[in-house]
DNA sequence: AACACGTGGCC
DNA sequence: TGGCCAAGTGT
């Protein structure tokens, strides 16, 4: 007898959660004694950033800023500097702003509902649901890129999810969420982990997948993606220049003059003094003056840098 | 709705 | 070697 949709969903829940129990990574923000703040910080750091790169920075942050109030007590520039090379440094700014809001409006605690979390800077649909679920055990539908990929393959039979989250995907995710609170949290974590470790974007490990027996994509013969993901431009972009400038500002302890960012005017006679590696890297890009000015203006507008004594520095 | 936004490891 | 990709958000 063919199982109904309800039985099929329950079987998926059982198989994937069991797989998680035996195969999940031992991440510090998953330990029972990790604070909601620790989980919150991890979620912001993990946005578009691999776990292995987040791990050491998260440990330093937890040691230095164990509470929202501790972070809020320092300047946003310190947060940006301690963000180091995680990328998208605006996240550090928003995390600092979120800590400030928690201190001012939430008694120094991480808010518990998705709606309140959503009001914080840097927190969108995914992060609000993830924190409510993982930190507070609430039944929220978590949808990230891993979960979308698992759903696309196992349920919809496609190689990749659509470029942007669709209403249909959201409906599917909502329908799949176990009714029980604790089971819903386990499900969220388990599907995400399956997508991260097994049902990966490139060369998925279908041989060890707990649900390969009823994967719609496998059943369809693993059809290729029906669209070509557009690449992320990098070389020569403002992003690259901003990144190089931020690397300079992170290591600088005094304001950096704009002319220093341009590099030695006479390349045939480089300065005798050794210059810091980040500055040398920026000079090597040979950024047109106009683009450098635009990048600096962007950083100032985003509050990632500020003017001081005619030079540039992290906000302090 | 499409685009901008960092960084570095991998195949 | 270089394009692809990673627990997204804000505009």
Automatic annotation (TrEMBL):
PANTHER family: ADENINE DNA GLYCOSYLASE (PTHR42944:SF1). The keyword rRNA-binding does not apply. The keyword Nucleus does not apply. Its EC number is 3.2.2.31. It comes from Arthrobacter jiangjiafuii. This is Adenine DNA glycosylase. The lineage of its organism: Bacteria, Bacillati, Actinomycetota, Actinomycetes, Micrococcales. SUPFAM superfamilies: DNA-glycosylase (SSF48150). InterPro entries: DNA_glycosylase, Endonuclease-III-like_CS2, Endonuclease3_FeS-loop_motif, Endouclease-III_FeS-bd_BS, HhH-GPD_domain, HhH_base_excis_C, HhH_motif, MIG/MutY. Belongs to the Nth/MutY family. One of its GO terms (biological process) is base-excision repair. Its cofactor is [4Fe-4S] cluster. Keywords: 4Fe-4S, DNA damage, DNA repair, Glycosidase, Hydrolase, Iron, Iron-sulfur, Metal-binding. One of its GO terms (molecular function) is 4 iron, 4 sulfur cluster binding. Residues 45-197 form the HhH-GPD domain.
């Amino acid at each position: 007898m063919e199982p109904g949709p309800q039985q099929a969903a329950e079987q998926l829940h059982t198989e994937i959660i069991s797989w998680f129990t035996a195969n999940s990574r031992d991440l510090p923000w998953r330990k029972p004694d990790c604070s909601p703040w620790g989980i919150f910080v991890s979620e912001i750091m993990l946005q578009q950033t691999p776990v292995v790169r987040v791990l050491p920075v998260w440990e330093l942050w937890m040691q230095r800023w164990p509470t929202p109030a501790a972070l809020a007590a320092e300047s946003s520039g310190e947060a940006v500097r301690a963000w180091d090379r995680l990328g998208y440094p605006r996240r550090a700014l928003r995390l600092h702003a979120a800590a400030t809001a928690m201190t001012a409006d939430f008694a120094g605690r991480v808010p518990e509902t998705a709606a309140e979390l959503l009001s914080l800077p840097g927190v969108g649909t995914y992060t609000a649901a993830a924190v409510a679920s993982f930190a507070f055990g609430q039944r929220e539908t978590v949808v990230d890129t891993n979960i979308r990929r698992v759903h696309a393959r196992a349920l919809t039979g496609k190689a990749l999810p659509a470029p942007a989250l669709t209403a249909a995907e959201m409906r599917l995710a909502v329908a799949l969420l176990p009714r029980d609170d604790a089971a819903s949290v386990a499900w969220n974590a388990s599907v995400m982990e399956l997508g991260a470790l097994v049902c990966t974007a490139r060369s998925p490990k279908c041989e060890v997948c707990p649900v390969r027996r009823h994967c719609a994509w496998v059943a369809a013969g693993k059809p290729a993606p029906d669209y070509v993901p557009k690449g992320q431009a990098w070389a020569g972009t403002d992003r690259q220049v901003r990144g190089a400038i931020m690397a300079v500002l992170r290591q600088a302890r005094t304001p950096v003059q704009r002319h220093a960012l341009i590099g030695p005017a006479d390349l045939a006679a480089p300065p005798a003094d050794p210059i810091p590696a980040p500055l040398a890297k920026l000079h090597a890009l040979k950024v047109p003056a106009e683009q450098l000015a635009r990048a600096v203006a962007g950083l100032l507008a985003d509050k990632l840098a500020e003017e001081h004594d005619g030079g540039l520095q992290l906000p302090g």
